[in-house]
Amino acid sequence: MIQTTTEGKLRLCHLNDIAPGNTLDFRLETTGGTRLIFVVNYQGHYYAYVNSCPHTGASLDWEPNRFLDATGTLLQCSTHGALFRIEDGLCIHGPCLNRSLTRVETINDGQALWVQL
52 lies in which domain range? Predict the structure, then answer.
């Protein structure tokens, strides 16, 4: 889903679109090409990452908008089960141990989430 562009920013979604403890994926079309990202609403904070495992480059989601492990406290790669901390994307278990997901900086204006293009 692609949203409104304003002054070099792209609106991802309304804050209420991602319930606490849930994730939402996005396909961004930019002049540099397509970029797949996802956002996690975790403990009142929003974290965004490129949807690509540092081990294989595969998408992390096993179903649309499903990036969390069974506990809901870690991100999990669908290909090989690597586990990543939500807060910083660091791999704490699996073949990409100590490597990190690529963070996407977001802007929270109190109503919506945006990314700077």
Answer: 5-116
Residue 52 phi, psi (nearest 5): -155, 125
Contacts of 91 (CB under 8 A, 6+ apart): 54, 55, 82, 83, 84, 97, 98, 99, 100, 101
With a cut of 80, say whether residue 94 has pLDDT above it: yes
The model carries a pTM of 0.91
Overall number of domains in the chain:
1
**Three-class DSSP labels, the chain:** CCCCEECCEEEEEEHHHCCCCCEEEEEEEECCEEEEEEEEEECCEEEEEECCCCCCCCCCCCECCECECCCCCEEECCCCCCEEECCCCEEEECCCCCCECCECCEEECCCEEEEEC
pLDDT tens figures, 56-74: 999 999 899 999 999 999 9
